[in-house]
Write the structure tokens for this entry.
Amino acid sequence: MTHQFLPLKLSQFILVTTLALSSIAYAQQSERPPFQHYYVQGNVHMFEPANTNGNPGALIGDDGILLIDSHFDFSVEDLLASLGEVSDQEINFVVNTHVHPDHIGGNNKLAAYGVTILAHDSVRLQMLEEIRIPRRGGSYSPAPAPAARPVITYSEAISFHLNGEEVRVFLAPPAHTGGDSFVYFMGSDVLHLGDVFRTNMYPIIDKYNGGSFHGMIEAMGLAIGMAGPNTKVIPGHGAGPSDREGMIVYQQLLFTMRDRVQALMEEGMSAEDIIAAEPMADYDERYGGIPSWTSVDVIPIIYEELSER
Ligand SMILES: [Zn+2]
């Protein structure tokens, strides 16, 4: 008798297992993909990683793919899979907006696939050595492999001509680092500003690699001046594409930080006093939620730059 029940039990087991597996599959499907795809405008797309750090952009068309930033080494396969869902074209070029590992980390693997890497002159020089990173009070990342280095570098500006438009890559004023590239997709009317522009946290000024708070205000002014009402803007960090209005909000944040620190300095406060006074408390909910970099990290940099004036 027992064996007659066996198929039933087995089928029950299979049913339960199938339900369990399908619920796991459903859970996986309902979770956010490793890279969230956004169609931005014209020929330009955005591939936002789960933590929105180091958002890659891509110009996609019949001439192939121009990728902006290569994210981390470990996520190249996920990034390629996301790109593959949008286009079967090859990636021909990568532009690194600056030297941080969430923007250059995928270079090594992409170079092995035959992708040509371009960045500002200074990024290549910074990649010859161990890279110092400002978050968490400063940490180090090993020097990237020689194959990960840009093979084309520029000093002031350079243009790609592909997919029916000009893509202008140019050096921003010293801001997030001293080698920040802005990328303007002229036909699509889309800007990728790397980490000079972020929508989810306070500005990171990387003093180890030539960054400047005052330069960041200037760089945002430059980008705002270039943008029209229909321009779309990809932030280095933050969810989804932004626009001219979003850049103005961010530049206003920079002005507010500067003016509040300045006012407290004029009262004779030290950098420590100013941090203790929590002058950005009303902005912390929006911009201060990422513990590795908060207003406590930015205030001493603003203080130092204002002291030098
Ligand atoms: Zn960065």
About this structure: The pocket of zinc ion is lined by residues 98, 100, 176, 195 (CB under 6 Å). The radius of gyration is 23 Å. Residues 124 and 149 are 6 Å apart (CA to CA). The chain is about 40% helix and 20% strand.
